[in-house]
Backbone:
């Protein structure tokens, strides 16, 4: 579902590489966390996967398609099969919560009748069903984050990319989000989640460690590899 | 579909000033295009009226008397292509010419001697008048034949020139209207760039963004053209009231307003201008926003 082959991203030739020779793949129904300190390249990685940016070198494949080679229309079609939770939520300020979530279905051509039930279901899942008519500016950061997650999940995407989905959430809600992500993976969605939240990675999920744009470790436990520990103590 | 209409209405209500500017430019474009078409229509109608009433004036020689003139009239009427012939005596001609030329006509009455019997020849087809004129020019009883060829050629030239100018103005108006619409759409999209960027990020196609804009411009074109056609109809009605009586003397009739079909054609053209303008404005924005 997600494949990266020796991906390098350099924003400026004279600057350091945001991603340096990164390779890994995520299978169908797998939940994978990408972690690492700020500036490690987690968000860049997700942006390359979502086609917001192009890799300087290497190949990024999503659902079997080389993202860098996609035409505009193909990219739109691909994005309709992928859900993305943005770090800055990217909610439309003039639309209420219901409309923000429903938008993900409108762009996919869902009609109004089918859409309402689906939107309410997912808003209920993120515990925001009671605030459907609120505008984003009336919500807390954590609530906005959950709306963003709801919007990414509502269309039941094949791939879910999450950029810090629990950054503003309390531990209870963070665990709730983890449960939602686990459920989505169990239903066959491939989930790649960039996070700094160690509590999220306590389970037996696969964790990829990034540092200075390089993959420095990968395991299936909550144990933090030595390199990361060094970074943390520093 | 309901969703698309709702989004189109949202576009209008979100930035009403731009929607108003677009509707206003379409109103002005329809008004100007309509006015040009009406002028063209009037000139064409009058030209047709003049052509259909076109006749040949045959002035007989001074020695031709009443009886002879009547025989000549019958001879003229028997010619191929002649529809009818009216005979004028010098007295009748004097009566007809005096009001047109005023008191200076025949000041001493000497010119009265110059007036002769004359005949006015109408052809079944106005185009045949030239041939008839050529045939009767050589009759020894005929002193002069006036088929007003020069006048009608000049009229044709004026009509052609007006047609070319009209087309030029119509194209200019269409281009300017399209430019204004594309600019307003571009501005509207720029004002909503953050929203559109998010929509595109979550998988909105160009069509998803473009369709409500096209529906919006269709609605604005509908409003603009309807108001413009109503304004034109009203001004035409009052112009007809004012000018009809004044035209009686010239023998011309005030033309009718656009037919239903012509009005619909004008609406269609304005709608196309609105759609093209929207598409140009949106295309520019959508290509550059990726």
Residues:
């Amino acid at each position: 579902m997600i494949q990266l082959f020796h991906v390098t991203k350099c924003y400026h030739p004279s600057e350091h590489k945001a991603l340096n020779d990164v390779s890994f793949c995520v299978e169908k129904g797998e939940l994978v966390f990408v972690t690492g300190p700020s500036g490690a390249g987690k968000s860049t990685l997700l942006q390359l996967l979502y086609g917001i940016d192009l890799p300087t070198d290497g190949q990024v494949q999503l659902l079997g398609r080389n993202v860098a080679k996609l035409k505009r229309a193909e990219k739109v079609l691909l994005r309709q099969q992928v859900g993305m939770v943005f770090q800055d939520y990217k909610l439309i300020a003039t639309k209420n919560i219901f409309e923000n979530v429903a938008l993900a279905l409108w762009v996919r051509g869902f009609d109004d009748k089918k859409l309402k039930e689906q939107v309410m279901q997912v808003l209920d899942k993120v515990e925001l069903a009671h605030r459907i008519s609120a505008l984003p500016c009336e919500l807390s950061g954590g609530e906005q984050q959950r709306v963003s997650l709801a919007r990414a999940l509502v269309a039941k995407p094949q791939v879910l990319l999450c950029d810090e989905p629990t950054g503003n959430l309390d531990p209870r809600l963070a665990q709730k989000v983890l449960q939602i992500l686990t459920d989505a993976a169990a239903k066959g969605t491939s989930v790649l989640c960039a996070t700094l939240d160690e509590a999220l990675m306590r389970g037996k999920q696969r964790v990829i460690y990034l540092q200075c744009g390089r993959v420095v470790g990968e395991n299936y436990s909550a144990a933090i590899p030595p390199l990361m520990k060094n970074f943390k103590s520093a | 579909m309901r969703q698309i209409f709702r989004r189109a209405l949202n576009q209008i209500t979100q930035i009403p000033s731009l929607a108003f500017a677009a509707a206003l430019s379409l109103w002005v474009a329809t008004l100007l295009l309509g006015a040009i078409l009406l002028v063209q229509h009037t000139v064409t109608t009058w030209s047709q009226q003049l052509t259909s009433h076109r006749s040949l004036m045959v002035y007989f020689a001074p020695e031709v008397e009443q009886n002879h003139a009547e025989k000549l009239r019958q001879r003229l009427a028997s010619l191929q292509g002649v529809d009818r012939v009216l005979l004028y005596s010098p007295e009748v001609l004097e009566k007809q010419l005096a009001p047109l030329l005023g008191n200076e006509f025949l000041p001493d009455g000497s010119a009265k001697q110059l007036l002769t019997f004359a005949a006015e020849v109408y052809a079944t087809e106005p185009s045949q008048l030239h041939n008839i004129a050529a045939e009767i020019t050589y009759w020894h009883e005929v002193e002069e034949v006036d088929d007003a060829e020069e006048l009608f050629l000049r009229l044709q030239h004026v009509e052609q020139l007006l047609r070319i100018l009209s087309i030029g103005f119509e194209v200019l108006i269409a281009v300017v209207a399209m430019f204004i619409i594309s600019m307003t759409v571009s501005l509207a999209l720029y004002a909503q760039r953050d929203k559109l960027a998010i929509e595109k990020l979550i998988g909105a196609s160009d069509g998803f963004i473009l369709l409500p804009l096209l529906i919006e411009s269709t609605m604005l074109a509908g409003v603009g053209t309807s108001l413009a056609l109503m304004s034109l109809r009203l001004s035409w009605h009052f112009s007809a009231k004012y000018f009809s009586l004044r035209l009686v003397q010239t023998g011309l009739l005030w033309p009718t307003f656009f037919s239903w079909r012509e009005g619909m054609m004008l609406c269609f053209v304005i709608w196309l201008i609105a759609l093209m303008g929207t598409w140009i404005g949106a295309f520019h924005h959508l290509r550059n926003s990726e």
